[in-house]
Amino acid sequence: MPVETPNMDVTTLKALAEPNRLAIIELLRESPLTVGEISHQIKLSQPHTSKHLKVLSDCGIVKVLAKANRRYYKLRPEPFQSLESWIKSFQGIMEERFDNLDRLLKELKNEGEF
Amino acid sequence: MPVETPNMDVTTLKALAEPNRLAIIELLRESPLTVGEISHQIKLSQPHTSKHLKVLSDCGIVKVLAKANRRYYKLRPEPFQSLESWIKSFQGIMEERFDNLDRLLKELKNEGEF
DNA sequence: ACGGTATATAACTTTCAAGTAATATTCGAA
DNA sequence: TTCGAATATTACTTGAAAGTTATATACCGT
Predict the structure, then answer these.
(1) Mean pLDDT across B90-98
(2) Under CATH, which number does the domain A10-113 receive?
(3) How far is A53 from chain B (nearest CA, A)?
(4) Where are the domains positioned within chain B?
(5) Angle at CA of residue A72, ends A67 and A76, nearest 5°
(6) Which nucleotide is nearest to B51 (CA to C1')?
């Protein structure tokens, strides 16, 4: 059977690929925070912050805990884990590829010279 | 001194966060390929393919090798490595955070009940 | 019940990247 | 030295996500 390669979810990558959201994620490393706290720290309007949090929430990067009229956002490990296993699936391949490229270049060189 | 946390390059994430480019990367796992081969396999126009390859090239995800009028594109390990070390920097934090959240919830509960 | 606070949502504008079409460049071969 | 193939680049159109403003909802304390 063919080797399983984890296929990475583009939605997760899209969510990560935005400076403000990345900043939010870095903030949430420390501890769960409310929208107001996040909004204040990264100097974004409250609606804007909520919008980014929704993107992060929709793809499972964060989860929310309601307490009174506050919402605590915290990181969820799952997306990070799948990203890690995807990235890891490239280990070993690069080096092998280097050999292959080496071979390829030699082939091409011969092709050119004979 | 404060603990060093690798700060992830948004440009790299942006480059990864697009389905066609992700497909190109998956293709290049196997071996270096020319623009024509890539273009054919993922059914994209040649200019479109070149454009995506430029994005990947600009952020160092691929490198190009010219041979005659062909360009061989291959993956470069560096961006994958830095992505991996960024992702790894989240390991251990999640679990600790869970404890913290647990504490936080208890605090909040007490706050509410007393 | 009322007022203030925290957050979400909807409607809108703006910005930027994806996608397309046409043209330029470079190379090998006849 | 011309021709076709491979690729890059430029100019353009389009669509989606970022950012903004205004409003709605829910909760607590009084």
Answers:
(1) 71
(2) 1.10.10.10
(3) 18
(4) 10-113
(5) 130
(6) D8
